[in-house]
Amino acid sequence: KAKSKGKAQYAMFDASLHQHVAEQLLLESELRRALGAGEIYLDYQPIYTLKDKRLNGFEALARWRHPERGIMEPATFIPLAEETGLIVPLGNWVLREACRQMREWSKGGDGLRMSVNVSSLQLNDHEFVGQVQRAIAEAGILPTQLTLEVTESILMNGAPETLAALTSLRDMGVTLSIDDFGTGYSSLSYLAKLPIDQLKVDRSFIEKMGEEGDNGEIVRAIFTLGQALSKQVFAEGIETAKQLSLLQELGCEFGQGFLLSHPVNAERAGGILAEHALVTA
Ligand code: C2E
Ligand code: MG
Ligand code: MG
Ligand code: MG
Which part of the chain is the EAL domain (predicted)? Predict the structure, then answer.
């Protein structure tokens, strides 16, 4: 009896697995189409000074306006894009669009900054440095206005080509940031050697800060590390006033989070920009 039940469960699992695979295949072909169809667009989350909430810039975040499923978050399609290699054209589109938008917003000057997320496939693509160069040139922005966010795992893989690409980008004047910092078990001696300007403390650490029994020791340690290595430290995922005040006490200069602003569409971001005096990092 137990055996037949097990078999039935297995068959059910198999059917749902099959459905999952079919679903992923469908999504893949839709994603392939989506980019050309203009269904991918960017929202922008403001990054502020934490001391006095002046605007430093924006982080560009990809969205997919799916004709039937509605607006899809990156978690539903970025991993798929990475598995299928579609992240390379998609990431290149994000880069160009973010630079173009920055140019449109920079008419009054060149103080505005934009952060763009980059995945490992892009960074390991030998055309990537050239694509960044072209995106900057085509948009007519300064390289110093662009920040590229890469995750720790990309860096820790430590391929010589990856390091060479990062070095070229930094030599161009692009700012390099380690996103979700603290989740990837970076070797500290390796970190010291990387051509990186910023550490963006992962949201999970900010989240715990201000909870009972957590006074931000981990975040404090990351700040000490950042200072020792001459890296700027940014905070992401600031949701509460308590977290903000702890970060201010730590001397954290820049951050983003729902408390300050959710990611917003380009039109609203333009409005936020019009209301704020810019401050450069
Ligand atoms: P990320 O780069 O760490 O971006 C920050 C994420 O945290 C965003 O989620 C943002 O909406 C969310 N967030 C910001 N403030 C708060 C807060 O106070 N509380 C909470 N709970 N969340 C907050 P989103 O837009 O869903 O993006 C998720 C991830 O998808 C990004 O994490 C990034 O890794 C990836 N991603 C987004 N756009 C792109 C892209 O164009 N290219 C690549 N390669 N990855 C992207
Ligand atoms: Mg990011
Ligand atoms: Mg992040
Ligand atoms: Mg994150």
Answer: 24-277
